[in-house]
Amino acid sequence: MEFERPHLVSASFDDVIGKRILANRRNWLLAAPIANPAMVTMFDHALDPRPGSPYLWWSGEFVGKYLISAVQDLRMSRDRQLESAVADVVQGLTRHQGTDGYLGPFEGDDRLFGDNWDVWGHYHCVLGLYEWFRYRRDARALDACRRAADHLSTRLSSPGMIEKLRHPAMNLAFSHVAALLHQETGESRYLNLVRLFERAWASVPLGGDYVEKFQTPGSLFAALGPAARWERLHSLQAVGELFRITGEERYRRAFTNAWQGIRAFDRHSTGGFSAIELATGNPFDPRPIETCATVAWMALTVDMLRLTGSCEPADELELSTWNASLGSQSPDGRWWTYNTPMGGIPTTGMGVMSLPPPLNRVPAFEGTRRPSPHDLGFQGRTGAEYLSCCAANGPRALGMLSEWAVMAAADGIVVNFYGPSRFTLLTPTGNQVTIEQRTRYPVQGRVELVVTPARDEAFTVRLRVPSWSTTTTVAVNGASRPGVVPGSYHTVERTWRAGDTVVLELDMRARALIGADPPPGCDPHSGKGAKGRLALYRGPILLAYDERYDRFDVQNLPPMAATSQLTLDESVPAPQDMRMVRVRAQTDAGEVSLGDFASAGMPGTVPGGPDVEGRVFQFGRNDGSVIAQRIRLLADGTIQGHTHPNEASWRRDNDALAFFTSEGRASTRFVWDARENGLIVLRGRFEFDERVVHELREVDLDVEGKWFQFTRADGAIITSLLRLRAGGSIEGHSHPNERSWAQQDGTLVFCDGDGRVTTRFTQTRSQFGRVDHSGPFLPDAGVTHQLRQLDRGVTGKVWQFHRPHTFPIGILLHADGTIESDHPNETFWTMEGDHLVFLDPNRRPTTRFALEKDSDGRMTWKGKFLPDPAITHRLVEWNIDLTWGENSRYISWLPSTATMPRTLLP
Ligand SMILES: [Zn+2]
After folding, report:
1. Half-sphere exposure of residue 528: CA atoms within 13 angstroms, side-chain side
2. 500 and 454 together in one domain
3. Is the C or the N end of the chain the one with fewer CB within 10 Å?
4. Helices (H) and strands (E) in the chain, counts
5. For residue 905, what pLDDT band results from cuts at 50, 70 and 90?
6. 219 CA distance to ligand 1 middle (Å)
7. Ligand 1 geometric centre to CA of 737 (Å)
8. What is the whole-number distance in angstroms between the Cα of residue 336 and the centre of ligand 1?
C-alpha cells in the first residue's frame, strides 16, 4: 500500500508543537524576508553591488529553502498574512529570473559550471516555486520552474557538459525536482533531464552511483566513504521518484536499502542524522549533527513512508520531530542550531574536527545549544545577516508535519501523528473529514480521536501502532478491537458517522537503548562508541539530564542502576522549568530529575517580545535612512518625539509591537526582533508600501567612558580615537576648540577653554547598538563634525576573518588570549596600545591591526600580515545575538552500571 500526502484543508496543533509552529510562523517565516532582503535581491543582476555578495557556493538555496518551509506552513495554517508575504517572495524571485531561465545569483563563467553549488541552488528554488504552484495553482510559478529546468536541459544535455558540473554531491540533486516536474506535467523532456542526471551519478567521479551501489544493503559510509555527505539524500529522493515513475524494482531496492542503511548506521538516538555533515556509519558518533542533514533525512523518510506504507518510517518521523527537530529550534522560533548534539558520549582521543571555525575543535562530551549564526557566522552577508543553510532549512522539520501527520491512502486516511491537534482533510471521494485528537500525549499514552465526516461515509482509517508500544489497545465507540500489532497500522473499516470516537492506549513504559561499540567498518575517526551508557525513552521522547534542573555536573552524573525506576513527575514545575516531560529516575546516589531532550540546554525565551516601554529608539528604514532620531514609546500608547498620522500610537498586536494610524489601522507590525550588541532592533514591513521596511533601533545615549573617532562630515579624520571621560575631559584629543564635553538639554556638545560651545551634536544615528553623533562646528558654518562611536572590545563575539583568495571564516577571540581559528598564524592575540596583534604559537606577531568603522557601521580591524606586508587582513564584527539567553549543559547518553539485559524498565 502506497500513501500520499494528504489533501489537507487545515491542520492545527496545541501544546508544544502548536506553540513551536506558531513561533516559527510569527518569528521566522513572516520575518525572514524582512530581516534578510538579500534572500531575493541577490538574484537581481541589475543591482551593483548586490546585497548578499560575495556569494557562498550555496547562496542560491536560501530563498528556495524558505519557500519550501513557508508553503508547508501555509498548507496547515492558511495564514493570509504569510500567504501575502510568500507571494511577494515568489514574485520577487521570478522577476529576477533570466530571459534564458537562469535562476541563480552568479555571473558569467560562474553560472552552473563554476566552482559553486549553483545547480543545487536551482534545485531549492525550483522545488520552492513548485510547492507554491501546488498550493496556490499559480501558473507563473510553474512556468518559472519549467523555464529553469529547460535552461538546465539546454546547458547540460550536450555531450560532456554534465561532466563539467563541479560538486556532484550537491549539483546532481536537481534530479529530484526534475522527476517531480515530469510527474506534474507528463512531459518527457523532464524525464530525459532526470535520466541525464542518473547517467551522471554513474559516470561522474563521486557522482554517487546510487542505483548500483545500493542494490545490496549497507551503510552510506560503506558505499561512499568520506564522500557520503548529507546533500546526497536529495539525489536519493530522485531514486525513489524513479521507482514511482517506472515501477522498476532496482530503483525501489536502491532507495529502501539506502534508507535502511542510514536508519541502522547513521540515525542517532535523537532522530537526528549526520556527523560533521556526513554519514559515518556510526550512530554513536559524537560529532556535530547538522540540522540541514536531519531535515534531509526527514524528507527522505517521508518519501519512504509514501513508497512503502509501512509503520517504521512514520515511527522515525515521530522520533525526529519530538527530539532532534524541536531540540534544534529555539522555543521563540527565532533561530535554529547548526548542531544538536546527543551529549554524553565520551570523546577522549578524538582529534580536532575538519570544520570551519569556530567548529574546528575537539568534539565535546556535553551537549549545548547554540544559534546557527554563532557556528555558521561565516555564511552571513550584508542584507542576509540571519541566513545560513540551517536557519533556512530548520523550519522544514516542522513544516513536514503537513506531509506525514495524516496521509491519504487509496481507500481512506492514515493517522501517523499523535498529540493534541485537529486535521481536516479529504476522503478518497473528496468529502471532508475532521479528526480531532484529545490527549496529553506524549506526556500520557491515552489518545482520543473524534472522527467527524461531512456526511456518513465508508472508508478506512489506518492508525499507526508505534513499534515501541508493546501493549496497545484500540477501541472504537467503546468496543475494543482485536489484532493490534506493534509496528504496524491498525486498519478500521466502517461507515464513519459524526462523533465516532477511537481511543488508543499506548504503552508509555520507559525503555532503554543500550550503548555499544561502533559498528565495524565505520569511519575510524568517529569515536569509540557509547559502551557503558544508555539512552532512555518514554514513548517517543528521548530523556536527557540538564544541569540546570539538578545538582550533578554532567561529568559526574551517578550511573543508572539496573533496577532503575522511572516515575513521571507531575508536580507543578518551577517557573523557569521549560520541560514538556519530567521524570524522576533512581540512581545509586538517589533520584535525579530527567526531562525531554528537546528542551535540554535550551535558553529561556522572552514571551511577547522585548520590553520596549520607555526606551529610546531611532525610527528609520532598513536602507539606513532616519525618520525620527529619538522616539520614546510611552505607557499610554503615545509615541513621543515623532508626529505623523501613520504613527499615531503603539501597542502590542499578536506578540508584535505595532504602530497604528490616527484612524486606528496598523501601519507597521515589527515582527522581527533581534539584538545588536545588546540593544534591541525591531523590523517590520510598512503596511501601506510593501517596499518599505521600518526599523526601530534602541539608542544608548550615555556617552561617558565611551570611545569615538572624531571626523568631519567629508570623512577626514581629526582624531582616530578619543574617549569622553567623566567630569567632561576628552582623552586622546588635544585642541583648543575641544577642551571639554558636556550634555546640554540632552544634546552632546564640545566646548573650548572658555566654556563656549564649539560643536553641537544635534544628530544621532544608531547602528549595531552604537551611536554616532554629528552636528555643526559653530565657528565655521561650513564644517560638520562627527563622533563615531567605536568599540574596542574583541571578546564575546564572532568575527569574520577576511584573508585574500578565500571565504571569510568566523573566529573567536577568547579572554585568555587564545584564538579559535584555522591556522597557527592566528594562535594568540594581545593588545599593544591601540593595536590588536595576532601571534603565532611562538608568540611572534603575525598581524598588527588598527580599529576602524566600516560604511555599514561595523567594527573592523585592518592590518598588514607581517610576514608578507602585501597582504592585508581584515576582521569584521558579526555580532548577532538573536535574544540568545543563558545556556546549560546536558547529556542524553546516561552512565550505566548495568549491561542492561532488559530493554524495558518498569
Ligand atoms: Zn546547514
Report:
1. 11
2. yes
3. C
4. 20, 45
5. very low
6. 22
7. 54
8. 10
Enclosing domain of residue 58: 9-207+371-402
Cα of 164 vs centre of ligand 1, distance in Å, is: 26
SS3 readout for 297-356: HHHHHHHHHHHHCCHHHHHHHHHHHHHHHCCCECCCCCCEECECCCCCCCCCCCCCCCCC
Boundary of a domain, candidates 758, 774, 790? 790
Measured in angstroms, how far is the CA atom of residue 233 from the centroid of ligand 1?
14
Tell how far the Cα of 57 is from the centroid of ligand 1, in angstroms: 13
Whole-number Å distance, alpha carbon 753 to ligand 1 midpoint, is: 59
Q: What is the Å distance from ligand 1's center to 27 Cα?
A: 19
CA–centroid distance, 507 to ligand 1, in Å, is 35
More confident residue, 700 or 841: 841
The CATH number of the domain where 498 resides is what?
Answer: 2.60.40
Q: Is the pLDDT of residue 887 over 80?
A: no
pLDDT tens digits for range 462-473? 999 999 999 999
pLDDT the model gives residue 904: 43
- 47/74 same-domain check: yes
Assess contact for 848 and 866: CB atoms under 8 A: yes
The alpha carbon of 372 and the centre of ligand 1 are apart by a number of angstroms equal to: 8
Q: Give yes or no: residues 121 and 187 share one domain.
A: yes
Domain match, 655 and 778 both: no
The end-to-end CA distance of the chain, in Å, is 36
Whole-number Å distance, alpha carbon 319 to ligand 1 midpoint, is 20
Cα(56) to centroid(ligand 1), Å: 13
Q: How far is the CA of 295 from the centre of ligand 1 (A)?
A: 9
Q: Which of 220, 119, 227, 218 is nearest to 175 (CA)?
A: 119
Cα 120 to middle of ligand 1, angstroms: 14
Q: How far is the CA of 476 from the centre of ligand 1 (A)?
A: 44
Number of domains in the chain: 5
Contact status, residue 896 vs residue 345, Cβ threshold 8 Å: no
CA of 289 to the centre of ligand 1 (A): 10
> Percentage of residues in the chain with pLDDT exceeding 90?
77
Query: Domain for residue 449, yes or no?
Result: yes
Could you tell me the distance, in angstroms and rounded to a whole number, from the CA of residue 65 to the centre of ligand 1? 11
The three-state secondary structure class of 818 is strand
Considering the domain architecture, whether residues 481 and 459 belong to the same structural domain is answered as yes
Report H helices in 188-290. 188-203, 210-213, 220-224, 232-246, 249-265
Q: How far is the CA of 399 from the centre of ligand 1 (A)?
A: 17
Tell me how far the alpha carbon of residue 198 lies from the centroid of ligand 1, in angstroms. Answer: 25
Going by pLDDT thresholds of 50, 70 and 90, the confidence category of residue 840 is very high
Q: Is residue 515 included in any domain, yes or no?
A: no
If asked whether residues 734 and 684 sit together in one domain, one would say: no
Output the nine-digit C-alpha cell for 84. Answer: 501575502
CA of 38 to the centre of ligand 1 (A): 18
For ligand 1, the distance from its centroid to the CA atom of residue 274, given in whole angstroms, is 11
Instruction: Please answer whether residues 573 and 582 qualify as being in contact, where contact means their C-beta atoms are separated by less than 8 angstroms.
Output: yes
Instruction: Choose between 221 and 669: higher pLDDT.
Output: 221
pLDDT in tens, 50-88: 888 889 999 999 999 999 999 999 999 999 989 999 999
Domain containing residue 809: CATH number: 2.40.128.10
Domain co-membership, 184 together with 89:
yes
Across the range 787-797, mean pLDDT stands at 88
Mean pLDDT of the chain: 93
For residue 903, pLDDT beyond 60: no
pLDDT tens per residue, range 192-205: 999 999 999 999 99
C-alpha cell at 58: 550555496
* Separation of CA 90 and ligand 1 centre (Å): 23
Alpha-carbon distances of 441 from 201, 420, 505, 903, rounded to whole Å: 44, 7, 10, 22
Put residue 478 in one of left, alpha, beta given phi > 0 → left and psi -120 to 50 → alpha. Answer: left
CA of 339 to the centre of ligand 1 (A): 9
How far apart CA 781 and CA 829 sit, in angstroms, is: 44
